[in-house]
Amino acid sequence: MVACGNTLRGDDAVGPEVGELLAVRLAGTGASVIVSDQLLPELADDASRARLVVFVDAATDRPVGSVGVRPVAPRRAPDDAVGDGRAAVVPPRAKRSLDPFSHGMGPEDLLALTRDLYSATPQAVLVSVGAESFEPGAELSGAVREAIPQAVLTVLHAIVEGTRSVPTPHA
Amino acid sequence: MADKTIVIEPVTRIEGHAKITIQLDESGEVADAHFHVTQFRGFERISQGRMVHEMPSLMARICGICPVSHMVASAKACDEILGVTVPPTGVRLRRVLNLAQIVQSHALSFFYLSSPDLLLGFDSDPALRNLVGVARQTPDLARDGVALRRFGQRIIERLGGKRIHPAWVVPGGVSRPLEASERDSILAEIPDARERAHRTLEWFKKNVAQWTEEAAHFGDFPSLYMGLVHEGGNAAYSDGLLRVVDSSGWVMADGVDPRAYGDYLGETVEPWSYLKSTYFKPLGYPAGIYRVGPLARLNVAERLGTPAADAELAEYRERLGRYPSSSFHYHYARLIEIVHCIDVIDHILSRPDVLDPHVRARAEVNRREGVGVSEAPRGVLIHHYKVDDDGLVEWVNLVIATGHNNLAMNRSVLETARHYIKGDHVKEGMLNRVEAVIRCYDPCLSCSTHAVGQMPLQVDIRDAEGSLLRQVSR
After folding, report:
1. In chain A, what percentage of residues exceed pLDDT 70?
2. Separation between Cα atoms, residue B236 and residue B341, nearest integer Å
3. How far apart are CA B305 and CA B341, in angstroms?
C-alpha cells in the first residue's frame, strides 16, 4: 500500500492518516505500508515485488468526504521509438512529459516505470478520498476526517478482493 | 532586423522555478542572456525569533532534496553558539548522513534530470526526454539510478527516521546513537551500491566522447573554484576549511576558517532575480566569479582520500587536465563523488566505535554568534546566526551553493546561447542545450532563494526594444 500526501497541506494528509492506521492493522500480514509525500521513481522497486498495489490519495475530482476505488493500469508507452534524435510521431494529445519532481507523477506513471524497469505488472487500485482544502495547515476538514474509517475499510476490502485471484509475482 | 528576445520558461528538470531570457541584437546574434530565479522564500526572515535549538529542524524545511546539508550546517552553527565539542561518533554519524544525501541527490541529478539529454539526445522529443524514456531505452542504467538514489535515501531513513526532513541532527551532535542492526543493514547494501556506481561511471567514460561539442560550449571559461578541504588537501564534505583556487591552480585563499567567510565572499542582488550572486571579494564584482560543487571540489582538493575514487580522479585529470573548466564536467565529477561517498560511508560504519552511545553534547547558550558550514551536493553551504542571551534567533544569513554559482550559471547560459542560437528561428534542441547547461550545476532554487511557491523555468527571446518575440514554457 502506498499512502500519498503532505501532512502539512490540509486534506492532502488523508493518505498518510489512512496509511498510519493500516500500518498497525496490517502488521504481520505480509502487507507493506509506505507513506510518502509524493510518488517517486524509487517506489517502482517496491511495486515490482508486490502482487497488488493499493494507492491511497486525496482527490479533487470527487465529492468531499466520499471514498472511491478504481483499478489502475500502467500508462501505455507511446508507439514511437525514443533516443534516435528524430522528432517523435506521437499525436500531440498523447504526449506527456514526465518530470518526476513536478509533484505530478501519478499511479499510472509509477506502474509504467515498474513495467519498464522491472518487467513487473502488479495489479493495482486507487482508493481516493474527496478533499476540500489543500491549504497549509495540519488539520483535516471535518468531512474528510469522518471519511477515514470508510477509506480504511475500502482499502482492506480491496486487498481481500485483489489478492484472492492474483498469482504470486515472479520478482 | 530588430533586436529580439527568447524566453525559456519554465526551465525544466531542475529543482526550482526559473526562466532564461536571451536577448538578440539586430543581426540576430545573442547579445545577452540571464538566468532568472522567480521564486522567493525568505527563510532568513521567518526564522527570526525562533529558539536556536529549533534551527536545524526548521532549516531542514528549506529543501526536500538536501535537508541534511542544511541540518548539518545549521547544527554546526548551533554547536558554536552552545560552545560544545561534538563527540567524535556524533561527528562521524553526521558525516554518514551528509554523504548519503550527496549520493541520493547526485543520483537524482544525473539519472533523473540529466541522463535523458545524454542518453536520448539533446534534440530528442521533449515529451519522451525523461526518466521513463531512459527506462525504455536502457533499463539497466535507469535501474542503477533508482537503486543508488534509494541507497542514499534508505541510509537517511535508517539514521534519521524518515527520508525527507529527518530530525536526527541536533545542536551538540545527533539525537540517538546508531543501532548495530541499522549499521549492518546499511553495510549489507554497500556492495550493490558500489557496483552500480562503478558501472555508471564506466558507462559515462565510454560515452563521453559523443558529448565533446557540448563539453566545449557548456560554460567552459576560467573562473575560481571554492570547496572545503581537510588539512593535507583531501576533499572534505562536512568539516574542513575553505580553499579557493583559480583555473591555473593558483591558490587564492587557503585554510580559511568558515567564520571568516565574510572577509572573502561578497553578496549582491540583481533586479531580475531573487537569487543573490556571491563573488570572491578580493577580485570584486563581477570579476570574482567562482564555482562550487562537484567540479570545484575536485579542482580544489589534492585528492579525495579513498583508493577507488582517487584512481578515478587520476583518470579524470588525465582526460580533462588538472583543472577542468567546462561546467559539462560537473556530471563526470558527480559520478566520481558517488563512488567516493559510498566508500567513506563503508569506512565509517566499519569502525568499531561507530556504535558508541555518546553522540551528543548538551549545553545552554554560551555565545551570541555561530557559523556552520558543510558541503551540500551542490557546493559549499554556510549558515550564520546571531542570537540573544535567551537563545532567540535575531539574525540569519544563509549562503547557499546555488548562490555561489549564480554568476557562473549566468555566464554559462550566455556562452551556450551564443554558440547555439542564431536568430529567432530556434529549434527546441538548441533551447534544451541552454537549459541543460543549468542542469550541469544542479541548482536548487528552493534552497537558494529561501521561495514560497512552486518550482518550474521559462526561455524569453526579446528584441532590442525589449519586446517579447518568443517564449518557450512547458
Report:
1. 80
2. 11
3. 10
Residues found in chain A: 171
Which stretches within B306-398 are classed as H helix? 307-320, 330-349
Q: How many CB atoms lie within 10 A of CB B248?
A: 9
Residue A170 lies in a domain: no
Distance, in Å, from the CA atom of B315 to the CA atom of B472, rounded to the nearest integer, reads 39
Place of cell 540569519: B396
Taking the Cβ of residue B473 and every Cβ of chain A, the question of whether any pair is shorter than 8 Å is answered with no
| Polymer length in residues for chain B | 474
Mean pLDDT of chain B: 90
Closest-approach residue (CA) in chain B for A8: B61
Does some domain include residue A90? no
A74 interaction partners in chain B (CB closer than 8 Å): none
Tell how strand A67-71 and strand A123-130 pair up: antiparallel
* DSSP at B180: H
CATH number of the domain to which A154 belongs: 3.40.50.1450
For B145-171, the pLDDT digits (tens) are: 999 999 999 999 999 887 777 789 999
Which residues of A make CB contacts under 8 Å with B?
36-37, 41-42, 44-45, 77-78, 80, 82-88, 90, 95-102, 109, 112-113, 116-118
Domain assignment present for residue A92? The answer is no
How much is the ipTM here? 0.78
Tell me the torsion sign for CA atoms A128, A131, A134, A137: negative
Domains identified in chain A, total number: 1
Alpha-carbon distance of B333 to B298, in angstroms, equals 7
**Interface contact B112-A101, CB threshold 8 A:** yes
Distance CA A144, CA B30 (A): 54
**B417 and B434 Cβ atoms separated by less than 8 Å:** yes
Could you give the residue ranges of the DSSP H alpha helices within A28-123? 43-48, 107-118
Rounded alpha-carbon distances, angstroms, from residue A48 to A124, B193, B264, B406: 11, 19, 51, 41
**pLDDT tier, B262 (very low <50, low <70, confident <90, very high otherwise):** very high
> Which of A107-116, B334-343, B417-426 has the highest mean predicted lDDT (pLDDT)?
B334-343
pTM summary value: 0.88
Amino acid type, A113: L
Q: A157 Cβ partners below 8 Å, 6+ apart?
A: none
Task: Determine phi and psi for A147, rounding to 5 degrees.
Answer: -85, -10
Residue B124 with chain A: CB contacts under 8 Å: 82-86, 88
Of B131, B136, B147, the CB nearest to A100: B131
Shortest distance between the Cα of A121 and any Cα of chain B, in A, equals 15
Name every chain A residue with its beta carbon within 8 A of the beta carbon of B147: 45
Q: List the one residue out of A72, A63, A54, A70 whose CA is nearest residue A11.
A: A63
C-alpha cell at B77: 552553527
Question: Residue B242 pLDDT more than 80?
Answer: yes
pLDDT number for residue A94: 35
